[in-house]
């Protein structure tokens, strides 16, 4: 699938006394740790949208976070190979299509278009591999074949549909990503599309891998029967095919730690000779709206496209998101736009100023903030202080605007051009 238009990331002059690696919080080890190799290529897999209600600010915050990770990786000299999926066949999408009387393919296509436009406007770096589940059936099948050979795939003994399941009980590492006790695992599994009470399963947490065709449902041919994939195997198969081997980071919103990323870890290890699926798991805090969880059922979503249609400039939306650290849950308030607009106006004015002589300390400060757990709020404060000094006319001993603008573009993805 075509992704969206990339933007250039300016190369910056070297800094002294900054960490030469990127550290982020890894859910699996519960530590702040280096992610990516010391040199060469980092690989990133980020869980993509189920194409409806795109692009709400929660989606945007998640993809912006991994845009920042790429930018800091690139700034440390790494190259990045990035894959993202589109869950364009799954129960929630079919339910939404049915509920609104739209063909599921049309719903997906229009929402993917909208998502691409929003990502382009926000200057989010695109994946090299943007892969729809409906284009990954062979990849899924090949993972299923490998699992079957290891005895980890079974059919439920259900008189109705004998769907295929993955045996979680055989994985001694199961639970190592999300650190939940069994009762909490069951609760989250049930709440997020799982079927703990299905008859015929060997273990309540076992994951649906291939669902046989029901009347009226879309389906694909496979040696496991005419059907469609379960959610978790879709991401595992796409990541392992396009990124080969253990990925440096699997990312997504914090809602995905369990069961989705736990299942990807378990299925991925089983399908890859016992090697870990990902070195680190990075999770983004949940964005709510004015005191409530942003949820499709409550209908309280704020969309990037709606803000843009109201005339809010994309860098302003980006700045409003950057004001929050990725690890925290936060609430969106309509007033956030005013705050971000004032910041954008001040920054733009400072970038146009013809003063300032040097940039080294400023760039080093931004690098330090971003390489230490992607601390975008701190980076904004550093720029704000420089902006205040420039606009107050505190002498010429401030960083040169052109150099600061380049650093802000490279590391924060903000450009007013
Ligand atoms: N298709 C699956 C992932 S394979 C999915 O979760 N789709 S989604 O459309 O529901 O979400 C897309 C991405 O945005 C996921 O990474 C998800 O974790 C993240 N996300 C969804 N809602 C929020 C929110 N309110 N705040 C932050 N991130 C969110
Ligand atoms: Zn996923």
Structure description:
By secondary structure, this protein is of the alpha/beta class. The protein has a domain at 22-288: 3-Layer(aba) Sandwich (Rossmann fold), CATH 3.40.50.620. Helices cover 41% and strands 15% of the residues. The protein has 13 helices and 14 strands. It has helices at 57-75, 91-100, 104-121, 137-149, 182-191, 231-243, 257-271, 304-309, 314-322, 336-352, 360-371, 376-392, 401-412; strands at residues 23-26, 31-34, 41-46, 79-86, 129-132, 153-155, 164-166, 207-212, 227-229, 247-253, 278-284, 287-289, 292-293, 330-332. The strands form four sheets. The protein has a five-stranded parallel sheet with strand order 5-4-3-10-11, with helices on both faces. Helix 7 (257-271) links the parallel strand 10 (247-253) and strand 11 (278-284). Helix 11 packs antiparallel against helix 12 (376-392) and helix 11 packs parallel to helix 13 (401-412). The radius of gyration is 23 Å and the shape is globular. The mean pLDDT is 94. The structure holds 5'-O-(N-(L-cysteinyl)-sulfamoyl)adenosine and zinc ion (ZN). Zinc ion is lined by residues 47, 85, 235, 260. Residues 47-50, 58-59, 61-62, 85, 87, 235, 252-253, 255-256, 284, 286-287, 294 line the site of 5'-O-(N-(L-cysteinyl)-sulfamoyl)adenosine.
């Amino acid at each position: 699938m075509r992704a969206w238009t990339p933007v250039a990331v300016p190369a910056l002059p070297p800094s002294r006394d900054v960490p030469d690696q990127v550290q982020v919080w890894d859910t699996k080890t519960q530590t702040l740790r280096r992610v990516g190799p010391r040199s060469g290529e980092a690989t990133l897999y980020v869980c993509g949208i189920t194409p409806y209600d795109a692009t709400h600010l929660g989606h945007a915050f998640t993809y912006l976070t991994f845009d920042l990770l790429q930018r800091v990786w690139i700034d440390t000299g790494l190259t990045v190979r990035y894959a993202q999926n589109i869950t364009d066949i799954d129960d929630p999408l079919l339910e939404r299509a049915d509920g609104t009387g739209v063909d599921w393919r049309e719903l997906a296509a229009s929402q993917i278009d909208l998502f691409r436009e929003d990502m382009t406007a926000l200057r989010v770096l695109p994946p090299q591999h943007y892969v729809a589940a409906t284009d990954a059936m062979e990849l899924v099948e090949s993972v299923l074949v490998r699992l079957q050979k290891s005895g980890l795939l079974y059919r439920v003994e259900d008189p109705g549909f004998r769907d295929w399941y993955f045996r979680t009980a055989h994985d001694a590492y199961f639970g190592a990503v999300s650190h939940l006790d069994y009762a909490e695992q069951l609760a989250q599994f049930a709440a997020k599309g799982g079927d703990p009470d299905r008859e015929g399963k060997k273990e309540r947490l076992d994951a649906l891998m291939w669902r046989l065709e029901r009347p009226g449902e879309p389906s694909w041919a496979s040696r496991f029967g005419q059907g469609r994939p379960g959610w978790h195997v879709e991401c595992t198969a796409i990541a392992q095919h396009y990124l080969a081997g253990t990925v440096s980071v699997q990312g997504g919103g914090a809602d995905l730690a369990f069961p989705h990323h736990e299942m990807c870890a378990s299925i991925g290890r089983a399908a890859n000779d016992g090697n870990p699926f990902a070195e680190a798991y990075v999770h983004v805090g949940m964005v709510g709206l004015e005191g409530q969880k942003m949820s499709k059922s409550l209908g309280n979503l704020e969309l990037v496209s709606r803000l843009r249609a109201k005339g809010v400039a994309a860098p302003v939306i980006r700045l409003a998101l950057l004001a929050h650290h990725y690890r925290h849950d936060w609430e969106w308030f309509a007033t956030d736009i005013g705050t971000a607009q004032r910041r954008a106006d001040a920054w733009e004015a400072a970038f146009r100023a013809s003063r300032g002589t040097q940039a080294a300390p400023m760039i080093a400060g931004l690098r330090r903030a971003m390489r230490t757990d992607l601390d975008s709020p701190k980076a904004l404060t550093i720029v704000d202080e420089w902006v205040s000094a420039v606009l107050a006319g505190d002498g010429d001993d401030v960083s040169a605007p052109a150099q600061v603008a380049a650093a802000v573009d490279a590391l924060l993805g903000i450009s007013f051009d």
